[in-house]
Design a protein that fits this description.
Largest sheet: 4 strands, antiparallel
Order of helices and strands: HHHEHHHHHHEEHHHHHHHEHH
Distance between the termini: 53 Å
Number of helices: 18
């Protein structure tokens, strides 16, 4: 036969839905009036909280455009490849967001608006943290960047938002960010180095004391061709060195660059071998003339690309185009009184519901001698743990 002696006991331990409903009905006034009172109190407190205003500025960052020099980079060979490798950012907007969060921009804003005094901070690191907390900069899918500033003063919030754009513009003026700027900075540096070497080579050539008759008899065209070819080899070597930084040795472009370098070197070796005997007989003059023509060819290459980069930079420009300048907001952004009251009401209702269930469970437990004994033991252990036991 089946043992059914434990069935009544199990039925007594089960939570009855009717009992829960009865508990709610018995405490219905508390469950309704309590959350309402808490919500009203929270609403009243929200009126005492100083309002926070949010000012927003939207701008279009500098755009990466196809430069006019792109079609002429082939004439430069390896140097054009290096300039192209230096440019190209996967997501320029992320870079501008990082610029605005940089210490350079934040420190300039701190000094400009005396934020250490306004935020009552002792260290600049703390001031930066407060400024970061009140600033939100996001990039949208439309390509626009938005800067939102929270502050108690609407005019100050607008001024601080617009100042972010102004300080970013000043930072970009000192940096080479766009493709044209990077090429201009690269060629400007190389141009100054080659110019100094060309002047030194010219002075060394003049110091040889070769007169005009010797100059006319010397096959300068052959020497110039060798110097130009040597300059192309140097340019290709620069390209290969640059490509090692972003390509593996097995990449097709890298292999092609190596083949081109090998061909140029072979041509240079052949030109030097076939150099006329009369040119070789000039000795020191020919060597210095070749060095001068080599530096002159490099200087012409760099000068041409430098001028093109300057034109592209002036056309492209690291100009930030402000779409919507920040204006003093007319409405506060925080606190949202209705939302605060609703959240406080719901939280209080949940807490009171949990309270009445626990209180009813304790009352039911006290009616059962076994449960009452367990509660008494638990109370004694709790007091002992807190050091309140006798």
């Amino acid at each position: 036969m089946t043992d059914t002696s434990h069935i009544p006991e199990q039925a007594e331990d089960e939570i009855s839905l009717l009992d829960l409903l009865q508990t709610i009905v018995d405490n219905l006034r508390l469950l309704i009036l309590g959350p309402l009172v808490v919500g009203l109190v929270a609403l009243g407190i929200s009126f005492a909280v100083p309002p926070t205003f949010t000012a927003t500025v939207k701008f279009l960052p500098p755009q990466q455009q196809q430069s006019a020099a792109a079609s002429m980079l082939a004439s430069l060979g390896g140097l054009g490849g290096l300039a192209g490798a230096a440019a190209g950012i996967k997501n320029p907007a992320d870079q501008y967001l990082a610029f605005m969060k940089s210490n350079s921009v934040q420190d300039a804003l701190i000094e400009r608006f005396k934020l250490e005094e306004r935020y009552a901070t002792q260290f600049k690191t703390d001031t930066r943290a407060v400024l970061t907390g009140s600033t939100r900069a996001v990039s949208g899918k439309d390509g626009l960047i938005s800067i939102e500033i929270d502050d108690k003063d609407p005019q100050f919030a607008a001024d601080l938002a617009n100042a972010h754009v102004q300080e970013l513009q000043q930072l970009l003026a000192r940096l080479a960010v766009t493709e044209a700027q990077q090429r201009r900075a690269f060629f400007e540096k190389q141009l100054s180095l080659v110019q100094a070497k060309m002047i030194a080579a010219e002075q060394a050539l003049r110091a040889t004391g070769v007169n005009s008759s010797v100059l006319k008899s010397n096959p300068t065209s052959a020497v110039a061709a060798v110097a130009a070819l040597k300059a192309q080899v140097t340019a290709q070597e620069v390209k290969v060195g640059a490509m090692r930084g972003y390509l593996v040795d097995t990449a097709p472009d890298f292999k092609q660059a190596l083949n081109e370098l090998s061909n140029l070197r072979a041509q240079l070796a052949k030109q030097e071998k076939d150099e006329p005997a009369s040119a070789a007989g000039q000795g020191d003059y020919v060597a210095k003339y070749r060095e001068f023509k080599y530096q002159e060819t490099l200087f012409d290459l760099f000068a041409k690309q430098f001028e093109l980069a300057k034109i592209d930079e002036s056309r492209e420009g690291a100009v930030i185009q402000v779409l919507d300048a920040a204006q003093p907001p007319e409405k506060k952004a925080k606190p949202k009184k209705a939302l605060i009251a609703i959240i406080a009401t719901l939280a209080a209702g949940f807490a009171l519901l949990l309270f009445v269930f626990i209180r009813q469970a304790l009352r039911n437990a006290n009616k059962d001698p076994e449960s009452a004994q367990k509660l008494a033991t638990l109370k004694t252990s709790w007091q002992k743990a807190l050091g309140k036991a006798n």
